[in-house]
């Protein structure tokens, strides 16, 4: 009997070690019995990322077995390194030159989804606004009149707004080098236009609606249809896991709700109001962005963004090929 005890003990230890190894190999998303899978998301509050807020408000993340924690950040550039090191799982923000430079240097993040894109229509959610005073005087009547003028862009020329500005100016035969780009935070753009600090501003919704409503600014031009400068980035530790797949499925479910008149439903407006801090009344008057139902990364736009930043001298290396940019979870 005594000889059997060590064998039993060894068998028990082996079983425990095997179970421990299995737990270590298992993705957190497989631990359904342990409760919802935690997912940390850094985001810059904007109606651009409506699928994120709608999925949270309507319980789509909960339905998928996820406990999503939304953490506000001022710029996506600040949060990208956090995703690369696994401190957050995902980042919803504009795609800056800094993002592409970080990816080229080996920061382990990939693009998993596109977010709000331009409709190309007037009124537009993202608009090149000009000072109402200059517009009424006739000094800034056309985009071509911006040559040599100061244009506010949140984050500067290397930010997502810089790409949107470049795409907008290109329609008038101009480039960002034909204007002076001034880094102005989005909430401060209205005051900068009012006090003459800048002549124009590349502003997103719903700030465009607010500055037009109070007479500070007037819409001058809009980005071409389909212009997309923002999206969702996943850290490599999260990308490819069952949790990432469930997260993206919940976002697509929300994107389906945003098609057509769904983007203006009261439930959606309430969710956006909570996320952005803007009133429902302002959001109701704001034209919505356009979201593709599958939120697939737009590789053509990712390439165009890199080319725009390269032209402006803001990339540290040659543009990356599309297959190096897109997350495994999005394929």
- What pattern of helices and strands is seen along the backbone? HEHHEHEHEEHEHEHEHEEHHHH
What Rg, in angstroms, do the CA atoms define?
A: 23 Å
Mean pLDDT: 89
**Helical content, roughly?**
25-40%
Structural class: alpha/beta
Biggest pleated-sheet summary: 5 strands, mixed
Number of strands: 10
**Strand-residue proportion:** 15-25%
Total number of helices: 13
Strand arrangement within the widest β-sheet reads 2-1-3-10-4
Q: Low-confidence parts lasting 5 or more residues at pLDDT below 50?
A: 1-32
Q: What best-fitting shape do the alpha-carbon axes yield?
A: globular
Alpha-carbon distance between the termini?
A: 58 Å
Give the helices and strands, then pairings:
Layout: H1 4-25, E1 37-43, H2 50-57, H3 60-63, E2 66-72, H4 76-84, E3 90-94, H5 97-104, E4 109-114, E5 127-131, H6 132-137, E6 150-153, H7 160-170, E7 180-183, H8 189-194, E8 200-203, H9 207-213, E9 217-221, E10 230-235, H10 242-257, H11 266-276, H12 280-284, H13 299-311
Parallel strand pairs: 1-2, 1-3, 6-7, 6-8
Antiparallel strand pairs: 3-10, 4-10, 5-8, 5-9
Helix pairs in contact: 2-10, 2-11
Description:
The chain is α/β, with parallel strands linked by helices. Helix content is 38%, strand content 16%. Helix 7 (160-170) links the parallel strand 6 (150-153) and strand 7. The chain is globular, with a radius of gyration of 23 Å.
